[in-house]
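User
Class, as today's exercise, I want you to study this protein, comparing sequence with structure tokens, and judge whether sequence predicts the tokens.
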Amino acid sequence: MTGSQVTTQGVQDYWKRIVEECSREIAELPNNPLRYYKRAQAYKGIGELELALADLTKAINLKPEDPQAYILRGGTYRQLRQPDLALRDFSTAIQLNPGDANAYLLRGNIYKIEGRLEEAVADATKSIELDPGQPQPYVLRGNAYVDLNNYDGAIADFTKTITLDDAYTNAYYFRAMLYHRIRQKETAIDDYQRVVELSPDSQAGKLAQRKLEILTALEADESMDEPFEENLLA
């Protein structure tokens, strides 16, 4: 058994213990929302998403004013590919706590995936206003700007991400792809090389290596119009 397998098994065992502990506590105190919330986290940890949903719904019924339960349930709906329900929960969380930058980021990511680009930009911008030191909203807004053909805005946001976190691999990758698209070959190469330096074995690192091979080939210009790959997300 490899080290990673041992680690994964250890994490699974930990979450299973939490499930058992919370189940005993729920049997004694069935109206404590915190126990359902904590057990839902554990269920998510072992991949039991439907059970997590049931516990989060119970927690919300017991304490409907708690925005964190809506955020966790919204994330679970997203994992289950139910974006409408995820949006509903993230929106409720925002209504309950309008100052939560993360809730706007999470909702904005759903808007981006669903192609609701202006709404994604609005939520990313609000998240930035509330917490300007976090890099993720800039990546989200940058990718939305790409789809809106606002390349200057996208480059500015990816660059801001790197200013906040100079090891943010995906920001270099997204910026490199955009430079590649607008035919700034040397700048694109610099960013792809940085991705490979930072994370050679990651998905972004492997994709960047492939892009470098394309760009350094004699006929590189023929491959300049490849689609913008956003499967890495933020």
